[in-house]
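Recap from last week: sequence in, structure out.
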Amino acid sequence: MKKLYYLVFSIILVLALTGCGSQEQQKSDGTTKQSRVEITVSAAASLQDALNSLKKTYEKEHSNVKITYNFGGSGALQQQISQGAPVDLFFSAAEDKFDQLVKEGHIEKSQGVDLLSNDLVLVVPKKNETGIHSFQDLTKAKKVALGTPETVPAGQYGTETLKNIKIWNSVKPKVVYAKDVRQVLTYVETGNVDAGVVYRTDAKVSKKATIVAVADNDTHTPIVYPLGMIKNSQHTKETKAFYDFLQSKKAMDVFKSYGFKGVK
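Predicted structure tokens:
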């Protein structure tokens, strides 16, 4: 009876150890679903197409990592991070939003880089029935779409441009504010407004809007896209790897294909 008892006990013990071993192996295997690391990136809406393209490339090469994006106006994203939103990387379309997080201690200055730049452009619907061909022509528009300046950098740059070319007071009553540049573009594409101010990269992906003017660089604050790691990231190693990848030549070539430029 004792022999039978020990035999049964031994079998149970072996099975238990085998099960533990396979479970441990499964947990240590980076390709398993259970151990897949999710990195959250809060990024300016204008980066959407380029970043989605890079996500496919990166996840294909790093099967243990899942990239999740939160796109929106840089100011709104900055406020979310300030209030404790769980984010690993912040990719802003404005330096002041980024600098605010550095000031608050959410980003270490050494873990940030000015990566991209862009052009500010004026777009109109393909038909362009109002005959708008320059920023000065906005005085004859009925409605003009602009990102909310407090939370959308493109809206801030656009307001600066209109003020510097001395037409802001005339255009201001006609402005329809949007939550981000993509919404501005949608308003233009659907004909809900006569014109809108967006980045060149946004206009480039549109088939229903046309660029009619490019703002002079000296009419607005330099357009710079800083990228940085959030201090309280739960996945420092994987976040740093993706942070480095976004600065690689491979990634920069993709950004440039979507119309972005490097920072000089």
